[in-house]
Amino acid sequence: MAAGNEVSSTYYIQHHLQNLTFGNHPVNGWSLANTAEEAREMGFWAIHLDTMGWSIAMGLLFIWVFRKAGKMATTGVPGGLQNAVEMVVEFIENLTRATFHGKNPMIAPLALTLFVWILLMNTLKIIPVDYFPVLFAKLGVDYMKIVPTTDPNATLGMALGVFGLIIYYSIKVKGIGGFAKELSLTPFNHWALIPFNLVLEIIGLLVKPLGLGLRLFGNMFAGEVIFILIALLPFWAIWLLDVPWAIFHILVVTLQAFIFTTLSVVYLSAAHEHH
Amino acid sequence: MNINMTLIGQTIAFAIFVWFCIKYVWPPISNALHERQKKIADGLDAASRANRDLELAQERAEQMLRESKEQASQILEQANKRSAQMIEEAREQARAEGERLVASARSEIEQEVNRAKDELRAQVSYLAVMGAERVLEASVDEQAHRKLLDELAAEL
To answer: Strand A46-48 and strand A21-25: pairing?
Structure first.
């Protein structure tokens, strides 16, 4: 889809960065957004069907594969799938053991879900940027952004989940009083500095999920934009840049999934700690 | 790139996947992993134990072999000694027996000689008596005496 002039390349890029949005439009009511403008006008009461669809599909793929491996799991000599799955599980187990200093059997499965799910969602990026948009356009669907992690809603949504768990475990382990004390009396243990402490700590708390979500989103989005820009080159030149960038992204995809998982575990570990 | 309900939807999906993973995905894999780990550890343990046993057995066998070799050589030595002793004894016995036989033979010969001497002596005296009788009966003849004396001598 090499574009001849500036207008059409701008359009091409914008088109590729637009989600398939279904929402409550002030004029059209509940409908699919036909343009980015319409999607914006829908405000909060809209949902990105592509993001949700692909992320749930990847989540189900994860659940299906790992459940299958779990069912087949024997204590004898493991097969190929079991081997691969066990490698991931063991990796996560070691990661959790190294970074999580509490005793909570939920953390390792949580980390496994985060890691594999994000990894699968990120991996969708390796698929050439035009395949699915063109395919869905043939089916009459205008927009199709297949990588859920390039949508801040998805990354912040997961970060929100982690944030909820941070709050939950902070209160569960320390009690509401203990948590409040931690927020108001650190880092300066003096009653006069409580407001200051509160501001500091609450900002620190809120930055955790925000950083978590935006880091993943930023990396994935930037990579996606580069892929789209590369796709604007003449078709015979695309592979020259596309292949190295894709190979590089094998690293980025894994690294970002790993960072998100590790930071989540670290935050949850901090939530379990008494001060 | 608007923030909208997708945020909530994603959070819900996240919660459900995590719950499912905690409930149905993690336990069987983790259990299998740990069980296998334990099994392998046990197997390695058993192998090292068997190895140690083998070493011990080998050592014991070697010791037994050494002991039996020693014993055998001891027995051999004893037998050698005993046989030498027996030969010595037999030789001694034989020599004593021989000496005894020689001595007895010698004494027998001596006895025989003595008896012969005695007999001879008796006969000589008898012949002398007979000769004297004959000399006294017959005429004293030089010739006849000579003849008689010759006969006597021949009879001796």
So the answer is: antiparallel
